[in-house]
Amino acid sequence: MADRQDVVIIGAGAAGMMCAIEAGKRGRRVVVVDHAKAPGEKIRISGGGRCNFTNIHASPKNFLSDNPHFCKSALARYTPRDFIDLVERHGIAWHEKTLGQLFCDDSAKDIIRMLLTEMRDAGVALRLGISVASVERTPTGFRTMTSEGPIDSAALVIATGGKSIPKMGATGFAYGIAEEFGLPLVETRPGLVPLTLDPGLLESLKDLAGVAVDAEAKSGKTTFREALLMTHRGLSGPSILQISSFWREGGDVHLHLLPEIDLLAALKTARKVNGRQAAQTALAEQMPKRLAQFFVEKSGLAHRSLADLSDKALDALCIGIRDWTIRPAGSEGYRTAEVTLGGIDTRALDSRSMQARDVPGLFFIGECVDVTGWLGGYNFQWAWASGYSAGQAA
Ligand code: FAD
Q1: What is the pTM of this model?
Q2: A Pfam family in this protein (predicted)?
């Protein structure tokens, strides 16, 4: 005989656990199943092990979706303050690192422990290491066929995340279920991901691997200003991860290095004060030495002293640094992407509850939905908010 529950949640990640807590608190009989051996594995590795669990500035404008209005309702129902209150009730110390990004002082594992405690207190059952073979509709709801037998439920919540980091157990499960039940999908692609360069360009930049610099990265009309990191595969660092979600194959990325500094004025002053100084030495006072050398060589000014350089030559050097245009060959893909863009088309879901409009009782939450946050705690805030909303309705 099948096990009987009110709510089955597939996926014990951030969204699934939050949904389970809220549904459990409402007195629903809830079971969470996951094929992984441990819950919240992405929470554990997030934020360099300290989990950037929310962003105090989170608002709908920090999310990408075919329908930018869809996320508004859930984000308003469960705010960063709500999650901070939960974290503080559990005595977890936190700090703001930068740009409203909140991290645990100690360890991301504190967040997982907190969620597990809340789940236990809400009477939620957690079954790990279980695979789900199929899901079908029944007259009273759904039957989830698992490796440990069938589970019947009135509500079924899909919280299996996106395709990012398949090594950690990410699957396209949610998209398959959506298709099975006739829900449309928005094409998926990797987001918050390092960009790669073609071999020729990479070779010309190989001496820069490991260099980090403050930069504005622009693609289309979108610009992010954060650190840029040159790697042995291409471009990375927060500014690149951010812009990667907006960049499309074949497009250029425009880099404005050192946007805070009036480089031309600084070089002209250096020329006045010490004309014998080499251009690359003067530039290296403003940026990493290897980068200074690269740009001076690129402009054909290697070993030239400042006094030899006209205003025009200095200006050309600065323009090269202010608008360094690079056409990436691609991205590192789902292997290293922090998130998956696209997913379950929001037109098929009710924005208050995350329930499928045409399949009562079926819910999709978290990363599998076509709502993707910027880098900086926004993606967890979406997981908490969408999980909370479904937890109130399932
Ligand atoms: P997930 O957390 O991916 O959970 C999905 C769960 O479903 C997993 O437990 C998985 O095992 C399970 N599952 C999958 N397929 C199946 C199946 N077929 N059967 C059964 N179970 C299945 N976001 C931030 O906001 N801040 C950060 O600091 C941050 N750091 C990150 C660092 C890294 C390296 C990565 C990869 C991502 C990071 N993110 C961060 C993004 C964030 O982790 C995700 O947006 C978030 O985890 C999505 O939550 P979710 O519950 O929807 O999915």
Answers
A1: 0.97
A2: HI0933_like_1st
| Confidence category of residue 1, pLDDT binned at 50, 70, 90 | confident
**Does residue 384 line the site of ligand 1, with CB under 6 A?**
no
Between CA 57 and CA 381 the distance in angstroms is: 11
Residues 155-190 have pLDDT tens digits of 999 999 999 999 888 989 999 999 999 999 999 999
Pairwise CA distance, residues 28 & 201, whole Å: 57
Q: Look up the domain containing 241 and give its range.
A: 195-253
- Give the sheet arrangement for strand 330-331, strand by strand: 324-326, 253-257, 212-219, 222-230, 234-236, 195-196, 330-331
Question: Best mutation site among 42, 55, 242, 381 for ligand 1, i.e. most ligand atoms within 8 A of its Cβ?
Answer: 42
Last residue of a domain, one of 299, 324, 349: 324
Q: How far is the CA of 40 from the centre of ligand 1 (A)?
A: 7
Q: Is 329 part of any domain?
A: no
ipTM of this model? 0.99
